[in-house]
Structure formats: C-alpha cells, structure tokens
Amino acid sequence: MPDQTAERSLVGSAPGTPEPETSAGESKIALVLEKLSFRNISALYIFAAIFIVFSIWVPETFLAESTWRSLIDSQAITALIAVGVVLAISAGAFNLAVGSEVGVGAILVAYFLSTAGFPIWLSILLTVVAGGLIGVASGLLITVARIDSFIATLGVSSVLLAGISWVSSDQQILSLSSSFTAIGRTQFLGFTMPVWIMIAVAIAVWYLLERTPAGRYIYATGGNIDAARLSGIRTKWVIILSLAGCGMIVALGGLLLTSTIGTGDPTIGPPYLLPAFTAVFLGSTQFRGGRINVLGTVVVVYVLQAGVKGFQLAGAPTWIPELFNGVALLVAVGLAKYQRRTQESHALLRLLRIDRPKKGDQPATDA
C-alpha cells in the first residue's frame, strides 16, 4: 500500500487531519505581492522617492525633458560596462581590471584610428578583440595559475594601466575622424547610439544567462564551482569565456566613450569601476532574489544616477557622486549577502520540515 505517512509529513499535517487547500487565486495574489514587495523591487520604490523629493525641491530643472535625455544618454556606457561585469561575476570571477579595460578600449581605438591610420571598422574590431584577449589572459591566471580572481585581475589592471601610459605617452590622442565620433553622437528616436547599443547588448546577455544552457552553466559555476565541476561542467572554460565576454563588452564601452568625447583619454577608464560594481551588486537584490541579473543592474544604474543628478541640480558639492556610489556599494553588498543568508535559512527550514517525522506518525508497514 502507498506510504500515506510520508505523504502527510510532506504537508505537515497530523494523521486524519483534512489537507489544507489553497486556491489558485490566493496563490496568484501571494505571488503578485511577493513580486511587488520592497525586498524584490526596492530600486523602483527608491526611484519613486527620489523623483518625488527632487520634483518638489528643484522642479524647474529636475523635471525638464533635457535633464532626463541627458541622464539616459550619459549613463548608457556605464550601464553597458556593468552588463559586462554581470557576465564575469555570474561565473564567480571578480574582475577588478574593468576600469583599466575601459581605458584600453578608449585608447586603443584612438591609436588605431589616429596613429596607425586603420579604417574605422578594423579599429573597432581590433579593439573589441583586444578586450576579449585581456579577459582570456585573466581567466587563464585564475583557472590555470590558480590565482584568486581579486589578485589576478588587480595585477592585470596594473599591467593595463602601464600599457595605456606607454601607448598614449600619457597624452590625449586627438584628430579622430568625424565619421567615428558620429557613432557616439548620432541620435536615433531622440537618444544617442550608445543607448541603443547598450540595450542590444543587455538583451543579448540577458538571453544568454536566462534562456540558454550556457547561462545555466555560468550561474552554476558562480554559485558553487565544486558542485558544478562534479556535475560535469567545464568550469575553467566557463570562467575564461565569461571573462572574455566581459572584456569585449567593456572594451566596446571604452571605444564608445572615445567616440562620444571625440578624443582618446588615457585617464578615463578607472572611474567606471566603482559604479559598475555598485550596479551589479545592488542589481542582484532586484527582481531575482539575490541572483546577479541584467535587468536589475541596468535599472540600478539609472536609479543611482537619478539621485546623483538631483543632488547636483540642487547645488550639492562635487564629491556627492563618489559618496553616493560608495555608500550604495556597501549597502548593495550587505543586502546581497543578507538575501543569500535568508534564502539558505529558508531552504534549510523547508528541508527540516520535510525530513522531520510528525508527532503521532507511525512507521509504514506493507499490507
């Protein structure tokens, strides 16, 4: 006969007690409430608060259409770089060379165009490939040389900064063609091309992570590399290719930055490290319950910048953005760790509830 005792223990009811029934409507309501909870979409509630406060404080400038167009355009490259970081961190690799990789993308494309005299398409291709090769080198240091990702990418960052200094002679590279600068300045449907490029790349990375086996391998490797390896996933290749993808996206962001400002600046990359990591960690607390994800990352980039822009328009000191991003990063890491601990605790409680026999249950016997 079937083991009815085991069935009763799964739902936690005593023998002879009618099973509780949950209607489909109640389940849907609970799901909607969970999706709309502050814990799941706190960034949207924070954005609403920011919008209300600065709409009252500085309505003439904060509510202006030009302000929001400028905000969306100016943060597209930051969001693009953060999407690249999503790939690396999802695989468990903390790429601290991101800022330097941005600088490499910015200076290499200018060097290829101005000094080497290459055509635009070849300069862009070589720059993106160079970013990918940097990611491969970082991946090999982590997986083959077995150097911790923090140390490996920090060392790579120092090497890249030296290379940027050597290529540029610590000088801006000027005389870029108008055809190249048009890439970063041309508008389509009211927004510059970097916005549309960022959206396209974000959709591609989202699809990779959420809808393909490769994405599951990446998340599995980042979640528990030992378990992923034992399950047959080639974790070394996952890390190497994730860092290569990160490097290509970040280099693309760097070359778009050069196209936008019209010059190759050797100092422009490092400031992007902190905003990118802040967006990724805080974005992990949005929509997916502690999992690194593309949508949360992009949303957080713009939410944080809306707060920074509001303070700037209100006449706050110039150091406000650094303070804002630093505090946000600390809060983001803390929230991400808290959500992970909470999820682990809930999972453990569910297991204990399932495995622990209920009072009054008797061992099952065969008929």
Q: Gyration radius, to the nearest Å?
A: 25 Å
- The helix count comes to 17
Gross morphology: globular
**Uncertain stretches:** 1-21
SSE pattern, N- to C-terminal: HHHHHHHHHHEEHHHHHHH
Mean pLDDT: 86
- The amount of beta strand, in percent, is under 5%
Physical arrangement of strands within the biggest beta sheet: 1-2
Helix content: over 70%
| Structural class based on helices, strands and sheet pairing | mainly alpha
For the record, give the distance between the C-alpha atoms at the N and C termini, rounded to a whole number.
Answer: 6 Å
Number of domains: 1
Q: Please count the beta strands (DSSP E, at least 2 residues each).
A: 2
Architecture overview:
It is a single chain. By secondary structure, the protein is mostly helical. The chain has one domain. Helix content is 73%, strand content 1%. It has helices at residues 4-11, 24-35, 38-57, 59-62, 65-74, 76-90, 98-115, 120-143, 149-168, 178-185, 193-211, 213-223, 225-230, 235-261, 273-283, 294-313, 320-355; strands spanning 187-188, 191-192. A two-stranded antiparallel ribbon has the order 1-2. A hairpin with a 2-residue loop joins strand 1 (187-188) and strand 2 (191-192). It is globular. The termini are close together. 38% of the residues are buried. The model is unreliable at 1-21 (pLDDT under 50).
